[in-house]
Design a protein that fits this description.
- The structure is a single chain.
- By secondary structure, this protein is of the alpha/beta class.
- The chain folds into two domains: 146 residues, Rossmann fold (3-Layer(aba) Sandwich); 288 residues, pyruvate-formate lyase- activating enzyme.
- Helix content is 40%, strand content 17%.
- It is built from 17 helices and 16 strands.
- The strands form four sheets. A six-stranded mixed beta sheet has the order 3-1-4-5-6-7, sandwiched between helices. A six-stranded parallel beta sheet has the order 9-12-13-14-15-16. A two-stranded antiparallel sheet has the order 2-8.
- Strand 5, helix 4 and strand 6 form a beta-alpha-beta unit.
- The radius of gyration is 22 Å and the shape is globular.
- The structure holds cobalamin (B12) and iron/sulfur cluster.
- Iron/sulfur cluster binds next to helix 6.
């Protein structure tokens, strides 16, 4: 069969961080890796391509079109499936990805034939051998329109499979992470045992840290051509065994690359002794969720660290000259005074890059119930759930004032606190201009929302 795997284009109307983070569609590369053995497969990355899916469909003539999805993509994905069906009605349409796992119901639509709630070698092989011979039946992890999208009831997680990175060869020079370009992404271990209550990530991968098969990891690390690897592990510093294994693999493979990782504050403090060696091996930056200046919120979020721990971790990293890309959550109950305290706190932490997301009680999270009566948008206003927009009605100040405070904080942080001059040395002026344009774009969207509200 001929299979076209598609990543949908960026959603213009939502606030996204796409100008800062733009990585390869690694999920599709994994599916490609499995299917290429028996089928003719191609990846079509609409975040880069300029031609429409119907034009591509006419050119490539696939039997199957499979589309990946994130939360904000639902309407676009359905639109694309409808476009495929109206081009050639007999093409089989399939949807997979994060949103299909978290909320498969959002894709119950006449243009979507099958939904991969989760994917693994077993269900992929079984499903594609069935449809190749024109049969359909219920398969674990897959919901089929013909069976009213019912599930077999067997739950599962997405399996981390070996990605074929050559499948995105023509796009790879575009993929980047902040100033690092080109950058590849990969994962060393899945899950997260910190189980913070606002977080989707451990819900997607499980509350248990598990290392990915080491042979697969080594083979993948050795084959990556890019000079930068971003590890998407939820907390690379989850345990010492993992850190030591990584150090050994980098030495064994004699790699000379830049590494970017997510790390918890708890892990940074606990495994401080390994940071110097990691730095000497190429660790350039850590993405750290500091979340807030307010201790009460820290415990409400079930963070396993305190606001003082944040300062401690920031000092450790400053002394070692490891960059920090910090993320924070703006709580809807913040007053003007709270925003002021927040800015003061960021000034003490002095991260190199700061991103602030308004608290987003994603549907399916227990938090959703708590804030349901204060939601500004419906659960199916998919494009609003971008983690960049205010979703919960602020309680202390008006919504437009809240946007003004967010805007002010973003500008203050980016212009006065983040050390852009140091970054110019590191990443080059072109990259810094790109990042600044990104913040201006986000700022423009905030101004529009401020005026509208
Ligand atoms: C890498 C990443 C990105 C990358 C690219 C992701 C992509 N799919 O294209 C970039 C940087 C572009 C990105 C952007 C965004 N992201 Co993001 N991202 C991640 C991250 C770190 C890893 C995702 C990943 O690649 N996982 C590994 C792969 C292998 O898993 P997978 O895609 O699910 O693929 C598996 C299966 O689903 C299956 N599969 C996937 N697609 C398909 C398709 C078919 C047909 C089939 C059969 C199977 C299949 O194959 C794989 C094998 O098991 C996660 C955090 C996390 N740890 O989960 C956040 C995460 C997914 N992102 C998130 C968000 C919110 C965003 C943004 C909206 C952020 C923003 N405001 O800008 C944007 C949206 C982009 C857009 N549409 O404009 C949220 C998701 C929320 C949600 N419910 O969807 C997460 C969970 C982070 C968080 N906040 O908690 N992201
Ligand atoms: S440490 Fe990070 S990834 Fe893990 S549960 Fe908390 S916020 Fe999520």
């Amino acid at each position: 069969m001929k299979i076209l795997l598609v990543r949908p284009p960026r959603i213009k109307q939502s606030i996204t961080l796409s100008d800062f983070m733009f990585s390869e569609p690694i999920g599709l590369e994994m599916i490609y890796g499995v299917l290429e053995k028996n089928h003719d497969v191609e990846i079509f990355d609409m975040m880069i391509e300029n031609i429409s899916l119907s034009k591509k469909t006419i050119e490539y003539k696939p039997d199957v079109v499979g589309i990946t999805s994130l939360c904000i993509d639902v309407n676009k994905v359905i639109e694309l499936c409808s476009e495929v069906k109206s081009t050639y009605n007999n093409i089989i349409t399939i949807v997979g990805g994060t949103q299909a796992f978290l909320n498969p119901n959002s894709f119950f639509h006449e243009s979507v034939d099958h939904i991969f709630e989760y994917s693994n070698l077993k269900n992929l092989s079984e499903f594609f051998s069935l449809i190749s011979s024109g049969k359909i039946q219920m398969v674990n992890g897959i919901r089929t329109r013909e069976f009213n999208y019912e599930s077999t009831g067997v739950r599962g997680y997405n399996q981390y499979l070996f990605p074929n990175r050559k499948s995105t060869l023509k796009y790879r020079h575009e993929y980047s992470y902040f100033g690092y370009r080109p950058a590849a992404i990969m994962e060393f271990g899945t899950g997260c045992e910190k189980v913070c209550n606002f977080c989707l990530r451990w819900r997607i991968e499980g509350a248990k840290e598990k290392l990915i098969d080491l042979e697969l990891t080594k083979k993948d690390m050795a084959s990556i051509d890019e000079s930068t690897i971003m590890f998407m592990d939820n907390d690379f510093f989850a345990n010492e065994e993992k850190i030591k294994l990584f150090i050994n693999i980098v030495k064994e493979l004699n790699l000379n690359k830049n590494y970017i990782m997510y790390a918890s504050v708890k892990g940074i403090i606990e495994f401080e002794k390994h940071l110097e060696e990691l730095k000497s091996l190429g660790l350039k930056a850590l993405l750290v969720g500091y979340e807030t200046f307010n201790e009460e919120e820290m415990s409400k979020y079930h963070k396993k660290s305190t606001t003082d721990d944040n300062l401690k971790a920031a000092n450790i990293l400053k002394n070692l000259k490891i960059d920090v890309w910090a993320s924070f959550i703006a709580h809807p109950d913040w007053s003007k005074k709270d925003f002021k305290l927040f800015r003061k706190y960021i000034k003490k932490l002095k991260p190199q890059i700061t991103s602030i997301s308004p608290l987003t009680p994603f549907p399916n999270l227990p938090m959703y119930r708590e804030y349901e009566h204060r939601l500004l948008y419906k659960a199916d206003d998919y494009e609003k759930w971008s983690f960049g927009q205010v979703i919960i009605k602020p309680s202390q100040i008006r919504l437009n004032q809240y946007y003004y405070e967010l805007l002010k904080t973003n500008l203050y942080v980016n212009l006065f606190i983040n050390k852009n001059t140091d970054m110019i040395k590191k990443y080059g002026i072109k990259n810094i201009i790109k990042i600044l344009i990104g913040s201006i774009n986000a700022a423009k969207k905030y101004i529009i929302l401020m005026i509208k509200n």
